[in-house]
Structures are given as structure tokens and as C-alpha cells.
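ok trying again, last paste got cut off:
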Amino acid sequence: MRFSLLQFSHNLSLVAYLSKALGKRVSIRLREPDGGARDLLGLLIDENMVKRKDGSIVSFDPEKIIAFREVEAIAATAGRGAPLSHRIRDLELSLSASWPPLEIFESGLWRYRFSDSQSLRANSVLLLGSGAFGDPGDELEKELVNVEKFYRERNARAAIQISGQMHLELDLVLEKRDWSRSSQIDVMVADLDDSRNSQGPDLNKNYQIEITEEPSQSWLDLQGSDDVKSTMARAKADYLSLSRDNELLAVGRIGYSDGWAVFSRIFVAELNRRLGLGDQILRAMLKRADAKTMKKIALQVGNDNLIAKSLYEKYGFRLHHSYLYRMAPENQSSESSC
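nice, full thing came through this time. structure:
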């Protein structure tokens, strides 16, 4: 975000500054009792209350204000502007909202997620803090015990999502504890304007695109997992099907969260691969995102899926960040559904 600093003077009326900014996004620096300072960022909903992006409401004492900033609205771009740690956190929240768990429990800035599907994205701890250990609510030793207990009580194997750019120290700790490691996942982003102008074939008139608000059984069959149906149903999304002569050839899903169009479940029927159908379904998804006036697009892809990554790069997608999952030793947790 871009900020314009308002030179703050306690000789001027606090009420005047705060009243003028009601309903706007602000950054407020407050003096702490120990002589330090802390910052609040969010929507000013009262003269002593800020609503953060995560929905939490924080009260403050106006007399403790050191500096006051109004957030200027700027054009939305995918994965640029704010510090990387903030961008990763915000994007991960949007990705999670488009693939929501059944249950959420928060401990500090550790968000426990549990779902009735096998998806690790909905069955793992998401670290929202930028500290080396992600800012847990308890000492690390105790937090890890709590994590294993939480998932064990739900007959699931404990898993923690690790962002390589932010939580390397925690990754090393879990490595020493014999938590197994998944393959790396890359989060790629694109601005729709860039993707629209990228090279690619026009949608072939021999193919038909159907867009629905719920997946059909044939859609679920092609992407290979009926298990994720309940998870997908918890978020508003579009389901695209590409067919020819009533034969389903490719599918894709678009979730919507906080200004992002999140592409997922992009699959081409096995017997029809390497025929350019990946291009066709991706272009249809971009067209749909454009029709919904979305500006930013995100997707996730295995780091070793070079064919898919090459296709996405052709349409303007670029790497934003990567992550992996660490999973507790199976002898310390019940056998899991994830």
C-alpha cells in the first residue's frame, strides 16, 4: 500500500484528525508504556477503534498517538507493493478463503484448519506471523504439542504449512523432530491485463464452455476427487467445463476472495492431453475472471510440474512465493485423512 504521511501535531485537535478519517484505511503509531511504539493498520470505524483486515477490532487511546497516516487507494496489482511478508500473509488468507476449512482455531498468529476432505490446504496450520516461528500463541514446544493434540482429536495427522521465505527456522526445528516434508508448491500470480495481452490461441469454436455455480458429477469425476466437494461448496466459485460433442475434455474452478480470482482444479482428460486443451480452458477462465471485473489472479502448482508452469508463464503468471507442508511423525498422531 502507498501511504501519505499527515504531519501530526498535538497542538491540533485529535478529534478533528480522527473524525475526518472515519471510514478510511489508516496507519496509526502509538506510544507504548515501555517507551516503544506499535502500529495499527486497518479501517477506522470509531475515534478509538480500528478494524483490521482479518476482521478483528482493536481499541486504542487517542492520547497515545505519535503519528497518523491515511492509506491512499492505488490501483490493485498482483503481488506487488507491500513488504513480501505482508503480501504472502494476505495472499495466503485469500487462497484459504477460496478453499475454506470446516473448522478454524487460532492461537496467536497460528491458524489451525480442519476439514472433512483430504486437502492439506484445509487440514493444516497456516502461519500468519512474520516471525521466525510464525508468532505462535504459546512457547514453541507447547504450541507443537497443542497442534498434534488438535489434529489427533480429529483423527487427522498434524501438518504445518511452511513458507520458505519466512519460516526457515521453524522448518529446521521440524526437520530435527522428524516431521516429514511434502514437495514444494509454487504460488503464481498475474495481473489480468498482462494475461489478456499474452499470446495464446483464441477459444476454438468447436469447443463449448459451460459455467455453473456447482460442480457436476462428471466435473468431479474428471478432476479425480469427489472428496473435495464439501470443501469447495463452502466458498463462492465458478466451475468451468470445456466440451466437444458432449464429451467433457477439461475443467477448472475460479474462487473469489478479497479482490483475487483464484484458479484451481485445472484438469484435462487424460486421453486428450497435449492437444492444446490446457490453453483452451485457461483462456476461458481468464475470460470469465475478466467478465467478473477481477484484476488479480492467483493459482498454485507443484514446483516440479514444468509443463503447467510453462503454460501459466505464457499467460503472464509469475512466481510470488513457495511453500511446503511439514507433517508430524505418524507414530505421534493417528492415521490421517489428509
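cool. Confidence is low (pLDDT under 50) at residues 1-11, 333-338. The two ends are 36 Å apart (CA to CA).
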